[in-house]
Amino acid sequence: MIQYHGWHYDEMKQVGTDYADVREVEAYDARMQKLRDIGEETEKIFTALNIEQDQTLLEVGCGTGEFTIAAAGQDVKNIEFHNAGFLTYEHSGEPIDAVLSQLALHHLPDFWKIIALWRVYSLLKDGGRFYLRDTVYSFEVDGYKDFFDEWVDGIRNAAGDETAIDVETAVREEYTTLGWIMEGLLERAGFHIDKKEYSEGFMAAYVSTKR
Ligand SMILES: C[S@@+](CC[C@H](N)C(=O)[O-])C[C@H]1O[C@@H](n2cnc3c(N)ncnc32)[C@H](O)[C@@H]1O
Questions:
Q1: Which of 39, 53, 125, 201 is least enclosed by beta carbons within 10 angstroms?
Q2: This prediction's pTM
Q3: Can you give the residue range of the structural domain that contains 83?
Q4: What is the number of the ligand 1 atom nearest to the C-alpha of 29?
């Protein structure tokens, strides 16, 4: 068991929405069904990462494991689960072929994001790929009030009050950063960003390679 220093960020302490709460997690997938097409996301990730059958994929912050299960071809024997996060996962064995993380990195403050990215980098084999999709802001900051109001209203209309409250909580308490900061963090961690895609002012996906 690794001993962490008193100054180390405690990533097991939930910020914003409490994903250690079983009821919260049970409701999560149902809410996401209204907003996301998991099948389409899975296809996109497979294409971007180009994973072959005998390769190793690490998903960080897997939530209820929807992607992991699809990636393992429904054969759960292929999956190892570790109760650890970006800052605490310890890898043993060969370097990993690909890493994926969706909607999890914004749970860390920016300083700890670069530590997280640098740890992901060090787990990968040379040429290994990293697919990162997260909430990242790309709207003009002088319009932030209108942007957040419209975002919350849009989510309320599409998925109801509970999900709108989730968005409000996330904006207030979690650590979504700006696109230019995220690109700098990825590059400073050593990655080459092959592809970046910003959407809706609050989402981004990056496909990066370990140089
Ligand atoms: C919004 S959910 C996303 C779940 C899933 N990846 C998805 O796309 O639906 C956020 C996830 O990030 C996880 N998480 C929070 N902090 C984390 C950290 N420091 N390292 C890894 N995962 C973390 C939570 O436990 C939760 O599973």
A1: 53
A2: 0.94
A3: 22-210
A4: 9
